[in-house]
Amino acid sequence: MVQINHQNTDNSSRRKLYKPMAEINVTPMVDVMLVLLVIFIVAAPLLTTGVEVSLPEAKSPNLSQDNEALTVSVSKDFITLQDEQITVSQLGERLRAISENNSEIKVYVRADKSLSYGKVMNVMSEIYKSGVTKAALVTIPEGNM
């Protein structure tokens, strides 16, 4: 058996007595990781980007009656301009002729709620292509259904 002499004051012999610590203390690293996790959890919702959209509401007050406004009604089967049945291309031609004489003309679009968004947008696109700058969708106020 080997005996260790503790009375030796030489520093080189002391170093041989102690083994280096082979374990890594991960507690501080876990603490830092948890703090970072909390920061990311709190900050992640703030980093989401997107387009803010303001959706229309049907609770708006009724529009005042305007004798100069035209009404375009869009249903599943046909389109009417002031109670006259026409096609989308005819709508553009008629509105172009009207808007040449009156640039401030207003067009109210009454579209059936069961229509697809695309069909309504085709009509709205034709209205704007014809030179009309003021067009609006008509809705029924909430509670009057």
Characteristic terms for this protein:
about 140 residues; Nucleotidyltransferase, domain 5; 4 helices; 5 strands; about 40% helix; about 15% strand
> Which CATH class of the largest domain is shown?
Alpha Beta
**Amount of beta strand:** 5-15%
Cα radius of gyration in angstroms: 39 Å
Question: How many individual helices?
Answer: 4
Q: Ranges with pLDDT <50 over ≥5 residues?
A: 49-56
Alpha-beta classification: alpha/beta
Largest sheet, in brief, is:
5 strands, mixed
What fold name stands as the CATH topology of the largest domain?
Nucleotidyltransferase, domain 5
What would you say the CATH architecture of the largest domain is? 2-Layer Sandwich
Residue share in helix: 25-40%
Characterise this structure.
The chain has 145 residues and is an alpha/beta fold. The chain folds into two domains: 37 residues, no CATH class; 68 residues, 2-Layer Sandwich (Nucleotidyltransferase, domain 5). 38% of the residues lie in helices and 14% in strands. It has four helices and five strands, in the order H-H-E-E-E-H-E-H-E. It has a five-stranded mixed sheet. The longest helix is centred in the first third of the chain and has 21 residues. The radius of gyration is 39 Å and the shape is rod-shaped.
